[in-house]
């Protein structure tokens, strides 16, 4: 157990509304049959506050996962370069048991092992981050050189305006009575702060760039009356250590080194200092070795550099309740097959502690015996995870290739989340409480990635069916015109909306937080009969399409989608009916205006949609009988009207012209186009 675990067991604030960690573990044991009423009591706590895990491997696994460990892991912890880094990793590997190399031999002498490892390193140089120029000048003073370089810094080192770079120089006497100038310039990108990820201000270590910088330095020196006698070969340094080494090289012979930079540390009360690049330069002149080292680290903190890689520190981890010996053999088989031709060494940690996850620390040389470099990426890690799982299953260990998004296990809990829960209890944020409780109870979660793909495919099929149905209605000339135009508009809107959400998913945005867009729909007024006919047409088509879907899940999704479409259709049609009434829809019982009922955006409405009987005919006798019946009904209505309504009718008749009885149309005036 680590110190954090001990602190958890001994710090239980009074009045906590949620149970403590160990109470939850005991509750879980009772739920599984290990305690509670009518059963045995939970096992007593040990001196570190954890119940015995000999009979309850599940509780041990839950406890181990609650401490931040994963079920199975294959990942790179770090990369290293040089003999010193290799020795540190080998020493860390061997802190519990002796490490073994690729031939199965035990690594007993670390010094000899480091020497053999160093022969395998490619001695690659890192990125060239510091330019070092050395000049022989005519005898001159330090103040003149300082003024010349200061004017160059205010003007620009590579181009005009390149004024933010850090530089250092020292002036010393040479053997011929001349003055030697050692000048170092940071050509790597210096970040504004540590969060800066850009690298646009980097100068390439090429001969043309060096000549340009050298000419500007020469021009600045001659402007102060300093003549350059000769030049030494150009040198480059790499990384923070290279910059510090350049400062120390200038200091040889007791010379003072002047460092000019805009990088500084902002002091914050109660917090650590913040590295950032200020607006004004600060200069430091010293011959103290330690002070130069400290200032070099400050400048290097904001220097973007690329260091060489000679080896990688790999971690192979498994669940807590695994057979340790078989796990080691599986890891050995995986390393022998995957890194054949590479030098590597591995050691086991947590072999005899059943409460913790066993894991192998492996150091692998990136250059194989043939000189080929290994540059692992995310695809390599996925392949390694798959092959390691295969080797484990061959040894009887029931693990599978797993990613965090695919694992059917509790969510990972960070240390700060655990500390918030431990200190605040139920007052902690709800998402933190849920994650910690799931981790403590070892509550598995369903794999998310595959289910997400299935849901995406089902929704794509469902939306496709809805769009296909709407497009079919829009092309059907026998369907009501209102249904055709509305289906056409909805199909276009659905396609645009679905493409927009797919773009959000592909770009990593949460589609549930995307704000929908407004799509144009028709706003021309329609009658109630037209709205009713359109609703019936869409409902009938949706029912017939749903009956043909064989898969029950797809049919349910389609029905849910059409239910939403039905609501949208109802709101749209009702709003258009209201607009018709606002424009003066005729009262019920009288024939509406032909301009509102027979015209639409896609043409003349279907006759059945108008809600009136087609009374046109080519037979004059039929027209005459129809007109006669109409006149008789009009006369009978006047005589049968109650006495209390007659004054109102007489008053209305004074304001309106008298009704005109219909007469059969003449033959020559008849509109046969109806």
Automatic annotation (TrEMBL):
It holds the Pfam family Relaxase. Residues 283-396 form the MobA/VirD2-like nuclease domain. Residues 613-622 have a biased composition (Polar residues). Residues 1-56, 504-524, 580-674 are annotated as: Disordered. InterPro entries: Endonuclease_MobA/VirD2. Residues 504-521, 580-608, 631-674 have a biased composition (Basic and acidic residues). It comes from the Bacteria. This is Relaxase/mobilization nuclease domain-containing protein. It comes from Rhizobium croatiense. The lineage of its organism: Bacteria, Pseudomonadati, Pseudomonadota, Alphaproteobacteria, Hyphomicrobiales.
């Amino acid at each position: 157990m680590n110190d954090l675990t001990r602190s958890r067991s001994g710090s239980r604030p009074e009045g906590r509304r949620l149970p403590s960690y160990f109470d939850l573990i005991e509750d879980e044991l009772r739920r599984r049959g290990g305690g509670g009423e009518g059963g045995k009591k939970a096992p007593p706590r040990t001196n570190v506050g954890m119940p015995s895990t000999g009979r309850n491997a599940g509780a041990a696994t839950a406890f181990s996962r609650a401490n931040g460990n994963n079920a199975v892991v294959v990942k790179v912890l770090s990369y290293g370069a040089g003999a010193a880094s290799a020795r540190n990793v080998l020493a860390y590997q061997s802190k519990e048991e002796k490490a073994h190399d690729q031939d199965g031999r035990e690594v007993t002498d670390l010094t000899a092992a480091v020497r053999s490892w160093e022969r395998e390193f490619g001695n690659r140089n890192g990125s060239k981050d510091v330019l070092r120029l050395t000049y022989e000048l005519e005898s001159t003073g330090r103040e003149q050189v300082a003024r010349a370089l200061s004017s160059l810094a205010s003007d620009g080192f590579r181009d005009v305006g390149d004024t933010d770079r850090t530089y250092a120089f020292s002036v010393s006497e040479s053997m011929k009575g001349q003055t030697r100038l050692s000048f170092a310039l940071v050509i790597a990108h210096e970040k504004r702060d540590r969060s800066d990820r850009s690298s646009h201000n980097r100068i390439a270590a090429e001969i043309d760039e060096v000549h340009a910088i050298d000419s500007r330095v020469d021009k600045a020196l001659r402007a102060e009356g300093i003549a350059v006698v000769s030049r030494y070969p150009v040198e480059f340094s790499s990384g923070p250590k290279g910059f510090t080494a350049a400062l120390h090289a200038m200091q040889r012979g007791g010379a003072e080194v002047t460092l000019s930079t805009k990088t500084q540390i902002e002091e914050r009360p109660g917090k650590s200092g913040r590295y950032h690049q200020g607006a004004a330069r600060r200069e430091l002149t010293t011959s103290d070795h330690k002070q130069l080292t400290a200032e070099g680290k400050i400048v290097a903190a904001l220097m973007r550099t690329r260091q060489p890689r000679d080896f990688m520190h790999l971690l192979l981890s498994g669940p807590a309740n695994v057979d340790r010996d078989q796990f080691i053999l599986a890891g050995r088989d995986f390393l022998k097959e995957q890194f054949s031709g590479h030098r590597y060494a591995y050691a086991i940690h947590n072999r005899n502690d059943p409460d913790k996850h066993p894991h192998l620390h492996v150091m692998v040389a990136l250059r194989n015996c043939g000189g080929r470099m290994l540059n692992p990426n995310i695809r390599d890690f996925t392949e390694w995870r798959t092959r390691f799982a295969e080797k484990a299953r061959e040894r009887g260990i029931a693990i599978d290739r797993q990613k965090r998004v695919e694992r059917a296990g509790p969510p990972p809990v960070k240390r700060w989340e655990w500390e918030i829960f431990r200190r605040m209890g139920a007052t902690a944020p709800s998402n933190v409480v849920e994650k910690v409780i799931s981790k403590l109870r070892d509550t598995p979660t369903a794999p998310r990635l595959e289910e997400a793909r299935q849901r995406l495919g089902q929704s794509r099929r469902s939306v496709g069916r809805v769009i296909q149905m709407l497009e079919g209605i829009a092309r059907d000339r026998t369907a009501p015109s209102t249904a055709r135009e509305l289906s056409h508009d909805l199909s276009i809107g659905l396609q645009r909306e679905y493409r927009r959400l797919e773009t959000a998913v592909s770009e990593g945005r949460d589609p549930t937080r995307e704000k929908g867009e407004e799509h144009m729909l028709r706003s021309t007024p329609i009658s109630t009969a037209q709205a009713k006919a359109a609703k019936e047409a869409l409902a009938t088509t949706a029912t017939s399409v749903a009956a043909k879907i064989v898969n029950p899940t797809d049919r349910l999704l389609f029905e849910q989608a059409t239910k939403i479409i039905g609501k949208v259709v109802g709101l749209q049609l009702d709003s258009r009916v209201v607009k018709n009434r606002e424009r003066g829809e005729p009262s019920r019982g009288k024939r509406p205006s032909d301009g509102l009922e027979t015209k639409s955006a896609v043409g003349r409405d279907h006759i059945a949609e108008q809600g009136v009987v087609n009374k046109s005919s080519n037979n004059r006798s039929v027209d005459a009988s129809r007109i006669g019946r109409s006149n008789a009904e009009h006369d009978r209505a006047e005589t049968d009207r109650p006495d209390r309504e007659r004054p109102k009718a007489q008053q209305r008749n004074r304001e309106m012209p008298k009704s005109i009885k219909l007469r059969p149309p003449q033959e020559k005036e008849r509109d046969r186009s109806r």
